[in-house]
Amino acid sequence: MHTTEYNRIAGDTIAAIGGAGDAHAAMTAAVATLKEQLPHYNWVGIYLMDGNDLVLGPFLGKPSPHTRIALDRGICGAAATQRQTIIVDDVNSDPRYLACSLETRSEIVVPILAGDRVLGEIDIDSDRLAAFGAQDRVLLEEVAAALADRLSSGRS
Hints:
By secondary structure, this protein is α+β, with helices and mostly antiparallel strands. Helices cover 38% and strands 26% of the residues. It contains 4 helices and 6 strands, in the order H-H-E-E-E-H-E-E-E-H. Strands 3-2-1-6-5-4 form a 6-stranded antiparallel beta sheet, with helices on both faces.
């Protein structure tokens, strides 16, 4: 997919976040826009921080057995703890991976940060190996920044 297309999707997603009535609606809109416009995103979800755990919020895709993830578990826990995006090209080769679906081959997890504080994260799975690259990282980090603004602005 061309950079122009990723830029359009970023704009659409950020507009959906900004136009949503509250923080939950903003997260739901972001998940729906990303899932609809990027066919290689098979599972799109947002986890929110709750103490030392990540708790599943809005998502689209098959139900996940991982509705609550401790910060010391999985790729999701690692991304939140390290406060940085993690891309895994082959989940079967990463011992941190918490299996959700047999079809999942790759994953990207992007923390939602307000300064140094982790508010949550965007978690996306694909049934393709090495499905996520630099354009996905840029797109999702922009979306995470827009969500951080909504989640920390008090307009929840």
